[in-house]
Amino acid sequence: MSVARLIEREFGGRLIVHEKIVSVTVTPVEVVSMNPDRLALLIQNIGVNNVYISTKPNVAVGEGLLLLANGGTIAYHWREDGYAPLYQWFAIATGDSKLYVQEYVLIKY
Fold first, then answer.
1. Strands 89-93 and 51-54
2. Residue 95 — φ and ψ, nearest 5°?
3. How far apart are CA 8 and CA 24, in angstroms?
4. C-alpha to C-alpha distances, 89 to 2, 3, 43, 104, nearest whole angstrom
5. What is the pTM of this model?
6. CB-based contact 96:49 (threshold 8 Å)
């Protein structure tokens, strides 16, 4: 049985992937909004400066989860991480940087 069929059977829908690039500077920005249908979330720092992410809108440098420059990555999956992929996430950087974001969202039938 295909993975697509397994997802359909378990969740009554299909997964779609949203990809985007988020520019991050020395002021906090929203990376993703809250989404109760998001099953998984991947965030990778593709920039040249360190980035900190948090569920707090006022995230500050030195606070939150550190994504190192040039590839620091975090991934959340609802089965392993509970509500973490659903939350709204914010980021701040030590200088101009970019985040690559993949959201795996359930589309119900």
1. antiparallel
2. -175, -175
3. 36
4. 32, 28, 10, 15
5. 0.93
6. yes
- What per-residue confidence (pLDDT) applies to 47? 98
CATH class of 3-108: mainly beta
Residues of the chain with pLDDT under 70: none
14 three-state secondary structure: strand
Question: ∠78-27-48 over CA atoms, to 5°?
Answer: 75
Q: 58-87: per-residue pLDDT in tens? A: 999 999 999 999 999 999 999 999 999 999
6-to-12, 18, 41, 94, 109 alpha-carbon distances in Å: 10, 20, 20, 42, 14
Query: Residues near 1 by Cβ (< 8 Å), separated by ≥ 6?
Result: none
Residue ranges of domains in the chain = 3-108
